Amino acid sequence: MNLLKKKTLQKLLRPCVGRLMVFLVLCSLSAIHSTAQQSSLLYDNGGFVNRPGQGPGGADLSLVLPGWGVWGVPAVQYYSARVADDFTIPAGETWNISTARFFLYEYGTTTSLFAGMSLRIWDGSPLNSSSHVIWGNTMANVMSDTGFTGAYHQPADYPSSVGAVMWLDANIDTTLSAGTYWLDWATTLSDYSHGDPLQGFIPADLATRVGDALWTPSSPNWGQITDAGRPLDYPFQLFETVPEPSSCWLAVVGSVFIMLGRIRRNQ
To answer: Average pLDDT in the 44-58 region?
Structure first.
């Protein structure tokens, strides 16, 4: 390529290089915004909404079916009332758990009054004397956020007893290999004027496995919680933090910027 053609080509490419750099900057910012703090669902112990749109004002409803005598149990830190349920990591898998989400209900308000929660992970059932706590304790507050789910809890036999279902997120940050583990948790409220918070169950018509829910009204007296022998489980979810692809994207963008900068200096 002779000198005249080379200069002509550089003149044509110069504005394109600038526009490309701006485009890559905008793409990288968009990637950061769209990927920051995303999480992926690892495990769902079961849903609690079994009557969509049939609650107050057309909200979703968690209905305790007729004939069920147990609506929920306290999970209250100040008198050691705790609840527990299990989850299983399949063979060959390792989970990097960052967050657990729980669902409890309150009466008299749709504003979450939850102020904290404690959480532990066991390597076996708390009923088994050989089981050990492998993460967490009963003192530290691991709640990161809470709010109203928009759904309500209601027993069919007592329709006037309507509670608002709240979600509570807890920071975990642990890695577990394949096996069966147990979570146990308790909560605190900023205002107890409406009564204690209650842990609801997965409704019978949504239950997909034999119930393993435990409850202790006064630690450490764990016991199986059932309703006339029928299976009970608590709704909860486990999440992992998704690695942010923006970091890789920014590395690529940075390399491109260096390359483009050299091109411009050589023009």
So the answer is: 97
